[in-house]
Design a protein that fits this description.
This protein has a domain of 82 residues: HIT-like (HIT family, subunit A), CATH 3.30.428. The chain is 25% helix and 20% strand. It has 3 helices and 5 strands. It has a 5-stranded antiparallel beta sheet, covered by helices on one side. The longest helix is centred in the middle third of the chain and has 17 residues. It starts with 7 loop residues before the first helix and ends in a 13-residue tail after the last strand. It binds guanosine-5'-monophosphate. The site of guanosine-5'-monophosphate (5GP) has 12 residues, from loops.
């Protein structure tokens, strides 16, 4: 997947549009989703130009991958989600309806999140 420098998360990373930030370090920026699907719905994005999980997992160096996932863990912990639990999700591509073409994790929490996924029509 080619990376589009004009995607909305690239603009947020460059500070061109605002976000409701919850955490940042050298590997990641985390901010509240603009259209939350749970009482807590935070997005965690790597700083580099990776269009989706597949690009990130393939192209990022080991330090970047580890740093990013450790940052996501820190975000969940600092949000106070650990005791009750939370869900992490990443969409890749058309079938998953990935809307923003910059790799990101969704962290959902703050309530009983129900079943893992609605059963897809076959
Ligand atoms: P995806 O479908 O790509 O996994 O999810 C993209 C997410 O980004 C959606 O949950 C959507 O609400 C969120 N989003 C889209 N545009 C913006 C924005 O400008 N700011 C923030 N904070 N979230 C956004």
């Amino acid at each position: 997947m080619a990376y589009d420098e004009q995607n909305v998360f690239a603009k947020i990373l460059r500070g061109e549009i605002p976000c409701n930030k919850v955490y940042e370090d050298e590997f990641a920026l985390a901010f509240h989703d603009i259209n939350p699907m749970a009482p807590v719905h935070v997005l965690v994005v790597p700083r580099g130009a990776y269009a989706s999980f597949a690009d990130f997992a393939r192209d990022a160096d080991d330090e970047t991958v580890a740093g990013f996932f450790r940052a996501a863990n820190t975000v969940a912990r600092e949000l106070g989600l650990d005791p009750d639990g939370y869900r992490i999700l990443a969409n890749h591509g058309v079938a998953a309806r990935q809307e923003v073409q910059h790799f990101h994790l969704h962290i959902f929490g703050g309530s009983d999140l129900g079943a893992m996924i609605r059963r897809a029509a076959s």
